[in-house]
Amino acid sequence: MEQSEFLEKNVFTGLTNINDGFDSENIYYFSEADFEIVLQRAEHFGLSIYGIEPWLNGEMFDVLSHDSFRKKATDPKWYNKAFSEFKKRQEGLAYAASYKVSKKLLERE
Predict the structure, then answer these.
(1) Average pLDDT, integer, range 59-77
(2) Which domains does the chain have, with CATH numbers?
(3) In the list 1, 3, 90, 95, which could disulfide-bond 109, CB 3.0-4.6 Å?
(4) Is the pTM of this model over 0.70?
């Protein structure tokens, strides 16, 4: 199974991709409520999240990565804290992230 297929089937399922063409069609963007679900599912599967990129009105708002928090990409503490910080700073953001699904998980599917 490919990483994109795994994400669509197990992480993004039932959620709305709000990328209406303002970025590459391969990048999924979610509302705050949906992105919270994405992070819960990522934690459940032990996925790596390398960076979170929120956008506001079609323009990049900011970006934070696991390096900013000196944590491993698989550590949910960093991405939950980053998400919390973004929510405090600005309402109505669209969220994207860079993910990695382990080979072991892909082979299991």
Answers:
(1) 96
(2) 3-108 (3.30.190)
(3) 1
(4) yes
